[in-house]
Amino acid sequence: MIGFLISAIKIIFLLGFLIFIHEGGHFLVAKLCKVRVNEFAIGFGPTLFSKQGKETKYALRAVPLGGFVNLEGEEESSDAEGSFSKTSIPKRIAIVAAGATVNIVFGLIIYFVLMTFGGSMTMADGTVLEDTVYNHIYNGFVKTSQFSVAIIDGLKDLITQGLKIDQMTGIVGISDTVAATNGIKQYIYIMAVISVSLGITNLLPIPALDGGKIVILIIEAIRGKPLKQEIESAITLLGFSLLIMLSVYVTYNDILRIF
Q1: What is the DSSP letter of 214?
Q2: Distances in Å between the alpha carbon of 124 and those of 129, 137, 150, 207, 250?
Q3: What are the structural domain ranges in the chain?
Q4: What sign does the CA torsion over 109, 111, 117, 119 have?
Q5: Could you tell me if 210 and 96 are in contact, meaning their C-beta atoms sit under 8 angstroms apart?
Q6: What confidence tens digit (pLDDT) does each residue in 75-85 have?
Q7: Integer Cα distance of 116 and 210 in angstroms
Q8: pTM for the whole thing?
Q9: In sequence order, what are the residues at sequence separation of 6 or more whose Cβ sits closer than 8 angstroms to the Cβ of residue 209?
């Protein structure tokens, strides 16, 4: 029972924290761009706790599997002061991309810190560098660069070669990996990997994801006018429906692999 509770806490904290910094990225850049944030929420479903600020309602909801930032004029056109729909396209793209960017930067920084303080470094010729601050930092840069290249190569393979659905991992598989971590360093390492993966996934040009929203904004910039609200809503709904079906299938495969 204690082991189950510890695993649950590890999973909820990791996912909750990564969602928090993701939505926090949207929130902070929106504020910098003078866009009104009506609600900042962690989780979905029934509200467990909420507090109304001067402008923004802050809420914690029952299902800790996501979050959202409700911007004035994001879902439908609004002429109110601080409307997202009346903000320049570069600012809107910055707001939409901010969440994923924070996840990627956070993950890389954490990975760099872990690699920097991971011990001495052995060079290609077998020479072991002395345990100095300089060499720790050098080691961190090398390992983080290798990690970044591996991520880019993986993304390139995903685009050029495709990824079989059976190879994908969903929330159940991720939770199982997090629960199985042994020690704080391994736990933080997994957090960094998931954070970067979350950021990259959200930037993919798929409707309902941040990357899909960015594509729609780029189309608006090229056309010189936004898509009709009905068309944009239909595209988003289609993308969301496909993501839900994919998530259900991937989760089913996760359960089969684990059990």
Answers
A1: H
A2: 11, 17, 19, 45, 40
A3: 2-258
A4: negative
A5: yes
A6: 777 778 888 98
A7: 32
A8: 0.81
A9: 201, 202, 203, 239, 243
